[in-house]
Design a protein that fits this description.
By secondary structure, the protein is of the alpha+beta class. It contains 18 helices and 11 strands. The protein has a 3-stranded antiparallel sheet. It has a 3-stranded antiparallel sheet with strand order 4-3-8. α5 packs across α7 and α9 runs antiparallel to α12. The longest helix is centred in the last third of the chain and has 28 residues. About 15% of the residues are buried.
Length: about 425
């Protein structure tokens, strides 16, 4: 019988297996009292104490936080022109506020989104409506209220301070999947039973090994025990429980008998239940199992495709929400109408291995799509700034594309002229 049966059929198991000659108090109850904690508290702190959950949140949050933030203007032909001197670029790439750097800010925002379903930050502006800083808010401090006209307002509760109300344009609010469009659904609440199971497994394992790994035997008594006898037996057995006390000899009296029990790793079920939980957390957070330490289904061939799938279906999903909210709340109306947008640069994240990357860049160079200087900039290298490094070449003798076009035009004209003469 594995851990699944121990958790889900606990009551029935205790009634049928732990009763010795049906006494009014089971000796098994005495020995295993406190083995499972039925009062598990599921909150942000306890959930993040689960290694797989902490790892999943850290991977997603650090991935997003490590990406550069671009501010660009989108032209009619689809070309994005980077605005290098935009006033928001320093704030979003280095120091959103006086307390947090950019990495800490976005990691905390994403962690709140993944655990609570909502990430909040106050937009602090000066008298000219210019954005000065972004101040993080914990979701527990924020109450979203829906007004009669369909709009919302945000009430912020701070310690030893009155509640303060903010308009939607004063708050960055990144939502998870929502049922009403005003507030994201909390993964903590949606998956409470899964988190509780994981916490129970941790507590069970702790008690399991603290009490000697498993029950090596049971004590049989020919008659029912009085309350006083139960207390004495419990105190006596406590001196022999625990992995540090293994090997001690047990002394019995009053006709009690000791019966040896055996258990194998399959019955312990730790591997089984932990693999189940990792697969559940993989689905909850949208992260490949190998990133949570489960390599049972990973190969050298599928790791790259799984990583790309993680970027496309998890990271970009969160980035789209953040980019949309930042562009909507931080840019002026004139900038938005002009096509200005805030986006994260995914180039470094989508880079493949060096061989694949080399083939990709070579193909773009050979068709004239990139110059030598453009390739060097893509790889983080300074441009050469020579006469040939900023030109585009094609496969025809690897000549200058403009020169080849001129030569082709000249040849066509000469052929046409010769034909007409």
């Amino acid at each position: 019988m594995g851990l699944f049966d121990k958790f889900f059929n606990k009551s029935e198991e205790r009634a049928t297996q732990l009763s010795l000659d049906n006494p009014h108090v089971s000796i098994g109850d005495i020995i295993s009292e406190g083995l499972l904690n039925t009062d598990i508290v599921v909150n942000e702190a306890t959930v993040l104490s689960i290694p797989a959950v902490k790892r999943a949140v850290s991977v997603i949050a650090s991935t997003v936080a490590g990406l550069p933030v671009n501010i660009a203007k989108k032209h009619d032909n689809g070309y994005l022109e980077s605005i290098k001197n935009h006033e928001l670029k320093y704030l979003l790439n280095y120091e959103p506020n006086a307390v947090n750097d950019k990495v800490t800010f976005f990691e905390t925002l994403i962690q709140n989104l993944l655990i609570h379903g909502n990430g909040f930050a106050v937009i602090n502006r000066d008298a000219n409506y210019k954005v000065e800083s972004l101040q993080l808010l914990h979701p527990d401090l924020v109450t979203v209220k829906i007004l009669k006209n369909g709009n919302v307002k945000y009430e912020i509760s701070r310690l030893q301070a009155r509640k303060k109300t903010f308009r939607p344009d004063e708050i960055i609010h990144v939502q998870a999947s929502s049922s009403n469009g005003f507030l994201g659904l909390s993964p903590l609440e949606l998956n409470r039973s899964t988190f509780a199971l994981a916490l129970n497994v941790i507590e069970f394992g702790k008690a399991y090994y603290e009490n000697g790994g498993f029950l090596t035997g049971v004590v049989k008594h020919p008659a029912s025990l009085s309350d006083a006898a139960i207390k004495r037996l419990k105190a006596s057995l406590a001196r022999y429980s625990g992995s540090a006390k293994a090997g001690k000899q047990l002394i019995l009296d009053e006709g009690m008998d000791y019966q040896t029990l055996t258990i194998n790793p399959a019955q312990a079920g730790f591997v089984e239940v932990n693999q189940y939980l990792i697969s559940e957390f993989s689905r909850i957070f949208g992260i490949p199992p190998f990133m949570l330490g489960d390599l049972s289904k990973s190969t050298m061939q599928n790791v790259e495709s799984l990583t790309l799938s993680f970027v496309k279906h998890t990271v970009i999903e969160h980035l789209n929400k953040i980019e949309s909210e930042l562009s909507r709340k931080l840019l002026t109306e004139a900038e938005k109408y002009a096509g200005t947008c805030i986006s994260f640069n995914l180039d470094d994240l989508l880079k493949a291995d060096s061989r694949t990357r080399g083939e990709y860049v070579r193909n773009l160079f050979n068709v004239g799509a990139l110059s030598v200087d453009e390739i060097r900039l893509m790889e983080g290298l300074p441009p050469l700034n020579t006469n040939g490094s900023n030109k585009h070449f094609v496969q025809i003798n690897m000549g200058d594309i403009e020169q080849n076009l001129q030569e082709n035009t000249t040849n066509e004209n000469e052929q046409e002229y010769t034909f007409l003469s």
